[in-house]
Amino acid sequence: MVRDGGRARRRGQGELEGQVLGALREADGPVSAAWVQERLGGDLAYTTVVTILTRLLAKDVVARERQGRSFLWTPTADVARLAALRMRRLLDGERDREAVLASFVTALPPGDEQVLRALLEAAEPGSVNNGNTPHTGDGGAQD
Q1: Which DSSP helix (H) or strand (E) runs through 62?
Q2: What is the DSSP letter of 61?
Q3: pLDDT in tens, 51-93
Q4: How do 7-9 and 70-75 pair as beta strands?
Q5: H runs (alpha helix) in 1-143
Q6: Which of 4, 32, 63, 70 could be joined to 9 by an S-S link, Cβ 3.0–4.6 Å?
Q7: Could you tell me the pTM of the whole model?
Q8: Residue 136 above 70 pLDDT?
Q9: Cα 100 to Cα 67: distance, rounded to the nearest angstrom
Q10: Measuring CA to CA, which residue among 55, 49, 19, 23 is closest to residue 34?
Q11: Helix 15-26 and helix 79-92, axial crossing angle in degrees, nearest 10
Q12: What is the band of 43 on the pLDDT scale with cuts at 50, 70, 90?
């Protein structure tokens, strides 16, 4: 939990992962989980920090190297990449991808819509998907 004006509040989904990744990106090199815990203010249990680091490792946004009986951690991606992975995971969990994407795009403020259009126009044909999700034609991911 985080203190917010004297009251405790729960962190939002993914917020803690973003904070841990942000702390790693501020480091001058590989750091321990204890360093990350201290950097985040120490209100988190050490085991929680290790759990978050392990989740980030599974998402391929951090790397680790053994040092003695523990690990040193290094970021391999930024917070924007982590957010994109969360967005992708949400999209992959929906049956009607086209409807979700349409709803997302129509809800964008004009400035964000223009940025998205420019990014899509700048992308090479076929590079937006990166080949990670086969297109099945029915809006869903292939089994």
Answers
A1: strand 62-67
A2: S
A3: 999 999 999 999 999 999 999 999 999 989 988 988 998 899 9
A4: unpaired
A5: 15-26, 33-39, 46-58, 79-92, 97-106, 110-122
A6: 4
A7: 0.66
A8: no
A9: 44
A10: 49
A11: 150
A12: confident
112-130 pLDDT, tens digit each: 989 998 998 998 776 555 4
Output the furthest CA–CA distance in the chain (Å, rounded).
52
Q: Which two tokens stand for residue 117?
A: 């259009």
Q: Given pLDDT bands bounded at 50, 70 and 90, which one contains residue 45?
A: very high
Contacts of 113 (CB under 8 A, 6+ apart): 105
Task: Give the closest residue to 82 by CA, choosing from 138, 15, 7.
Answer: 15
> Is 129:141 a contact under the CB 8 Å cutoff?
no
Distances (CA, A) of 41 to 3, 21, 37: 11, 14, 7
Q: Which two tokens stand for residue 76?
A: 């391999």
Q: Is the dihedral of CA 14, 20, 22, 25 positive or negative?
A: negative
